[in-house]
Design goal:
single chain, 468 residues, alpha/beta, FAD/NAD(P)-binding domain, protoporphyrinogen ix oxidase, domain 3, seven-stranded mixed β-sheet, five-stranded parallel β-sheet, binds flavin-adenine dinucleotide, oxygen-dependent protoporphyrinogen oxidase activity, Protoporphyrinogen_oxidase
Length: 468
């Protein structure tokens, strides 16, 4: 009996890849509802040669998850296509925020934390020291918003100008709703255990050195360390990664079925019945779902409690507008800027793509809008021309760009980024407990559970297959 993977985004493709490695002779079917694999990863090369990334644009190297992705890239022979941004490049050093009508560079070096860098009214080190004296607060629910945690430990300016725009940049979400465990689980645990973060860090340094996970020392990883990459992409855009994964899967007899949606999932004794959009039924003894949690929840027959838990992990809509200008229109170099929500303007941020990865004489920018605030600014049926006009007005005000772009692409991505609101980890625990207690032959991976970045998603796929 075949194993079935639902969804052909990077989560489903990676799951099928690790599954094929683990079970070389098993029949594997991957079911993807759309006409292509890759999910939100979509790169479109324009005739002049520059790339519009319509979803994600860079991968991070840091940590075991970053190392794991690099290993996958190595195994797929994509190493020669890597376009790194080295850590001394302006795009690695200069990340900005737009506050009080101005662009400000965020502190990026050890020494810069000792200087006053507006919009912060004090040197960053003073906010960090605040942790030593701020009273500890035991949170009985063992979770709170990342905004309230940052405000309690470091002060309101850090919560407003550092954490809130960061959360907009990572998940287009509201730091006042997103769980502290989304990014700062260790810091939160330190405070809960030791009374402040500093004591927790000291304890880790003194007693927990050996707990560092082993690094996957591939040649590519050594090259990345030597050349000091901060983030990277691939020369034909990030979509090269899912495209190459798809090729590798087809070559290894994974049956990838495009344009076939899963319409319902029914557990039947120790098996699972998949009902497809073409009216067929497929029986499997194990289902791996990489679908967004709420989508899987809607497909479940019965199992009301599991259904409700899955449906409660919701996503936000994001509008991504790629712009190309024939000449140089930026007078500052950097990765781009993010906008703290308290500024109340209708964009999340802008990336300076042609600064990160230069191509020819022109300028490529991407404006991100919406997220948690999509309905507030755009309602539920905005026109493309209104969205474009909003983006152009904002880059004129903030960056002084009055030229009209010669090319643009407007992409409305519905329900594209899950929101790990307060209580998220608890929900995921309950989901896993339900699956175990009811002996359901179901494994879950993808961006809804253990992190929203590509590295997190690939690792979630590897983990479910390792644990199968
Ligand atoms: C605008 C944006 C910018 C981002 N930037 C970055 C970045 O710079 N770096 C980074 O690391 N991450 C970034 N991310 C996050 C990253 O792109 C995603 O987390 C990741 O691509 C999600 O992969 P996935 O496989 O979990 O889900 P998806 O990509 O959503 O894949 C799920 C797949 O399931 C299919 N599907 C849905 N329903 C059904 C059904 N009923 N039957 C069959 N198939 C179905 C869909 O068509 C889709 O192909 C960004 C995300 C967005 C939206």
């Amino acid at each position: 009996m075949s194993k079935i993977v639902l969804g052909g985004g990077i989560g489903g493709l990676s799951a099928a890849y690790y599954l094929r490695k683990k079970l070389p002779h098993e029949q594997i079917i991957l079911i993807e509802g759309s006409s292509r694999t890759g999910g939100w990863i979509k790169s479109s090369r324009q005739v002049e040669g520059y790339i519009f990334e319509q979803g994600p644009r860079t991968l991070r190297l840091q940590g075991p998850k970053g190392e794991n992705t690099l290993k996958l890239i190595d195994e797929l022979n994509l190493g020669s296509l890597i376009k790194p941004i080295p850590s001394n490049h302006p795009a690695a050093i200069n990340r900005m925020i737009y506050a009080n009508g101005k662009l400000y560079s965020m502190p990026s070096s050890f020494w810069s934390i000792f200087k006053k860098t507006p919009p912060f009214s004090k040197p960053i080190v003073r906010y960090l020291l605040n942790d030593l004296t701020a009273p500890a607060k035991v949170i009985p629910e063992r979770d709170e918003s990342i905004y309230s945690f940052a405000e309690r430990r470091f002060g309101k300016e850090i919560a407003d100008y550092a954490i809130s725009p960061l959360i907009c940049g990572i998940c287009a979400g509201d730091a006042k709703r997103v769980s502290v465990k989304f990014l700062m689980e260790n810091l939160f645990d330190s405070e809960q255990r030791y009374g402040n973060i500093s004591k927790g860090i000291l304890y880790e340094v003194l007693f927990a050195r050996n707990r560092k996970p082993k690094v996957i020392e591939t040649d590519l990883f050594k090259r990345a360390k030597k050349e000091k990459w901060s983030v990277y992409s691939l020369s034909d855009g990030l979509e090269t990664l899912p495209m190459r994964l798809e090729q590798a899967l087809r070559k290894n007899n994974v049956d990838i079925k495009l344009n076939l949606s899963c319409a319902a999932v029914e557990f039947y004794k120790s098996k699972v019945q998949i009902y497809t959009s073409s009216g067929d039924k497929i029986l499997t003894n194990h289902l791996i779902s990489s679908l967004p949690a709420h989508v899987l929840g809607n497909l479940l027959v019965g199992h009301t409690k599991l259904k409700q838990l899955l449906q409660s992990i919701t996503c936000v809509n994001v509008c991504v507008i790629n712009l190309h200008f024939k000449k140089k229109v930026l007078n500052t170099e950097g990765f781009g800027f993010l906008v703290p929500p308290k500024e109340n303007i209708p964009i999340l941020g802008v990336t300076f793509d042609s600064c990160c990865f230069p191509h020819g004489e022109g300028t490529v920018l991407t404006v991100m809008m919406g997220g948690y605030w999509f309905d507030k600014y755009f309602g539920n049926n905005p026109t493309e021309s209104d969205l474009l006009q909003t983006a152009l007005n904002q880059i004129q005000t903030i960056l002084g760009i009055s030229e009209k772009p010669d090319t643009h692409k407007i992409n409305i991505l519905p329900n594209c980024i899950p929101q790990y609101v307060v209580g998220h980890n608890n929900k995921v625990d309950l989901i896993n407990k339900y699956i175990t207690a009811n002996h359901l032959p179901l494994s879950l991976c993808g961006s809804s559970y253990y992190g929203v970045g590509i590295n997190d998603v690939i690792m979630s796929a590897k983990n479910v297959i390792d644990n199968l």
